[in-house]
Amino acid sequence: MKLNKNKTAFGRHETFPLRYGWLTKGVEVIGKQKGIFQEREHETAMTELGLGRNMVNALHYWLHVTGLATFVGGDGSVSPLGKALLGKEGDPYLEDEATLWIVHWLIASNAEWATGFFWFFNHYSAPRFRDKDALQALEDFVAQELGLKRAHTTLKSDISTLLRMYSPVASRGGEEHLDSPLASLQLVNIDEGYGYNSLRTSRPFLPTVAMHFALQQRFAEHAGKHQNAKEAAIPVRDLLYGGSGWAAPGAIFRLNEDGLMTCLHQMMEDYPRMYELRDTAGVNQLYRLTPPQRPETVLANYYQHYKGEAA
Questions:
Q1: In angstroms, what CA-CA distances link 265 with 201, 208, 260, 261, 289?
Q2: Residue 10 covered by a domain
Q3: Which of the listed residues 199, 227, 248 is the one where a domain comes to its end?
Q4: How many angstroms from the chain centroid is the CA of residue 179?
Q5: Do residue 241 and residue 169 come from a single domain?
Q6: Which of 16, 220, 236, 282 is deepest in the core (most CB within 10 A)?
Q7: What is the pTM of this model?
Q8: CA distance 127 to 234
Q9: Claim to verify: residue 83 and residue 101 sit in the same structural domain
Q10: SS3 of 191, please?
């Protein structure tokens, strides 16, 4: 999703990082009672989910950010993406690490509903930083690049929540953030004696389906009115660093250049005749050779194969 200064959201998570089981619980309860996240149903939601009021609001937000559920007039429905990812044919218990990488992509690429998270993974390039450094950089970005005014406390809550959600050590610092699933990806770590680090590395164990999923979404959005054309291309540099407000898989997955290229080559082996790298007029570009797949189709094909191998 492309960054648009007229469509931003900060601090909507009630300061609660995403927890293990939350998304699956949310998908399950919406499937049974579509209006459970309406204000008048909060007591029921608290009982069904075993969560406090503010946590219910946070779960509502994370379901919305990830696109696993859609909400119209207060009523929720599980999206095709939600069914494919966390339904009985998907990975409801988050047993496959690829599922976490895909959830991470869904959050960090959502410039409209998780603007602070989008900024951190797509724009903030400091490999080592303190929380106050990241906060200052976010405040500068919001004021200077977006031309917006947002409360210091709101932006501070985004940085604090992000660090607790992604930092493995920080997530064990207290009961309230004991079990954040995205901490296991090690995209943010404690840097002893300094603060935090979020380093671009090769990440050889990044599941290629996560890159494939991200690229299918990226191509569909980037291509715009030409998305149904047989071929489309994105410069590799844009995939690594982003461009014109688009989410960059290389940045979101914290890949260095070698890591991105290795992942792309492995992905082309795993998904033959779907992509091709070409040097066009001196610009290295990734072409897609087929129309983009729907996200739920990517997931359905992957989990069918994954569960077949596990059987």
A1: 16, 10, 9, 6, 15
A2: no
A3: 199
A4: 18
A5: no
A6: 16
A7: 0.94
A8: 26
A9: no
A10: strand
